[in-house]
Amino acid sequence: MKIDRKQILEAFLENISRMTDKDYQERVWVRVEGPECDDIDETIAYFFEEDALIDNYQDFDINETQLTALRVLHKNLRTFTDTYGIYSPFKSTKKLINMPEWEKIMEMAKEVLEEFHYKK
């Protein structure tokens, strides 16, 4: 079975784009309005599930600059989730996405998308 690395990378970048879009976060993650079915936990979990993409960046035609941006986002997102217990059922998504620390995550995610010249 052939792995479509381009499609995997595209889905990965689309997921990162959710971290950059405050309107999307408010509508889908906070108010649970569709048509998308997503939440902050799913978006972050999917990002971390794709560590193989970062580990095998050459296989995905990711250059050093793009890799650096991904690693910076990965490190800071891990710190954010470890610090604020993002996977806790008692968290408030609305409070999380309005924190200054989340704003920084959003900016890092935007930088990743810029490095990949990603347009949704």
Secondary structure elements and pairings:
Blueprint: H1 5-18, H2 22-30, H3 40-49, H4 51-55, H5 64-84, H6 93-97, H7 100-115
* Count of all domains: 1
How much is the average pLDDT?
Answer: 91
Largest sheet: none
- SSE order, one letter for each helix or strand: HHHHHHH
Strand content: under 5%
Task: Note the overall shape.
Answer: globular
The helicity comes to 55-70%
Structural class per helix/strand content?
mainly alpha
Q: Kindly, what is the distance between the CA atoms of the first and last residues, rounded to a whole number of angstroms?
A: 28 Å
Number of strands: 0
Number of helices: 7
Q: Return residue spans where pLDDT drops below 50 for at least 5 consecutive residues.
A: none
What's the gyration radius in Å?
14 Å
Structure description:
With 120 residues, this protein is an all-alpha fold. The chain has one domain (5-115). It is 67% helix and 0% strand. The protein has seven helices and no strands. The chain is globular, with a radius of gyration of 14 Å. The model has no long low-confidence stretch (mean pLDDT 91).
